[in-house]
Design a protein that fits this description.
Blueprint: E1 2-6, H1 11-22, E2 26-31, E3 50-52, H2 58-68, E4 72-75, H3 91-112, E5 115-121, H4 145-160, E6 164-169, E7 172-173, H5 180-190, E8 193-197, E9 201-202, E10 205-206, H6 207-218, E11 224-227, E12 230-231, E13 235-236, H7 237-248, E14 253-257, H8 259-262, H9 278-282, E15 288-290, H10 291-301
Parallel strand pairs: 1-2, 1-4, 2-3, 4-5, 5-6, 6-11, 7-10, 8-14, 12-15
Antiparallel strand pairs: 9-13
């Protein structure tokens, strides 16, 4: 099986390439930079084929994917800077990446009759209430530009293809790139006290664990919408920070605050990021380990 992976300089794309190598599959990585620009950690991604591709350029997408001729495309590339996406001069660029670029990739997959995995987000929903969101729920009401453009990407995939996996994730962390854990570790070293939001509820997703699940998926034809985060229960960012500092051995005091009290964010954030994952088990897939265990392994990797 030959697998083409977009966004390999990011957290998830990097780990998907490593997982493919572990299983002996042929992985071809891509990103916008002329050469691989992710972490040079000696992992398989550094030694596997890499091709530069601008997903916002239809000709580039058609030529690149058409020449690679993959059996599967795992589309990890995205604009993920949520607040920056709200800037008036950035909106069309965000849409070009998350929506139009995704459509171009789906069209290329259709021509080759290959499978596609699209990584989406809890931000496609309005984030209200306390009931976990079901994978097949179509009650979309994104709160911000990022969520709206990721939803447009979802719709482009579902309208174009039959052989697709749309996998929504939340609160992502991995070795390659910035994330909440790295930020908190830095802040916790500098300050005695940190203020963290306590009224946004969800579950973290470790890209190392998610990559394993995604490769499990592409080995099947169990297409459709899925939700995938680590197990271990729903928590707030405040709860997550408490556990990060506990496992890291920090004595930093963590003060819970509401989203309103915290302020700062340009983009509206969902209060309810609870994703219902039971469809994974129903389809025969192995759930991700608990987020507490994932955090422990991640801190060791760091």
């Amino acid at each position: 099986m030959k697998v083409f992976v977009t966004g390999v300089a990011g957290q998830l794309g990097h780990d998907v390439m490593n997982e493919l190598a572990k299983r002996g599959y042929e992985g071809v990585g891509s990103d916008i930079a002329p050469e691989y620009a992710g972490t040079l950690d000696g992992s398989a991604v550094c030694s596997m084929p890499y091709v530069a591709m601008d997903i916002t350029d239809l000709a580039s997408v058609e030529q690149t994917i058409g020449s690679v001729k993959p059996d599967v495309v795992v589309h990890c590339a995205a604009w993920t800077a949520v607040d920056l996406a709200e800037d008036e001069d950035k909106v069309e660029k965000v849409r070009a990446i998350n929506a139009h670029g995704t459509r171009y990739i789906a069209q290329a997959c259709k021509k080759l009759d290959c499978k596609m995995v699209y990584i989406s987000t809890d931000y496609v929903f309005d984030g209200q209430g306390e009931t976990p969101w079901e994978p097949d729920c179509k009650d979309y009401q994104p709160l911000n530009v990022y969520g709206q453009t990721k939803l447009e990407g979802e719709l482009a995939v579902a309208e174009t293809l039959d052989k697709y996996f749309i996998v929504r994730i939340a609160w992502v962390f991995g070795l390659n790139g910035k994330n909440f854990i790295k930020t908190m570790l830095n802040v916790g070293q500098k300050y005695d006290t940190v203020r963290v939001v306590c009224d946004q509820i969800g579950t973290p997703t470790y890209t190392f664990d998610l990559a394993r699940l995604l490769v499990d998926m592409i080995e099947t034809e169990k297409y459709g919408y899925y939700h995938a985060t680590n197990e271990g229960g729903y928590i707030s960012w405040y709860d997550f920070t408490i556990e990060i500092f506990k496992q890291a051995g920090y004595t930093t005091k963590v003060v819970p605050v509401t989203t309103e009290e915290y302020g700062l964010s340009k983009a509206a954030r969902p209060f309810n990021s609870r994703l219902d994952k039971k469809k994974l088990v129903e389809a025969g897939f192995t759930p991700l380990p608990t987020w507490q265990d994932a955090l422990k392994r991640y801190l060791k990797e760091l």
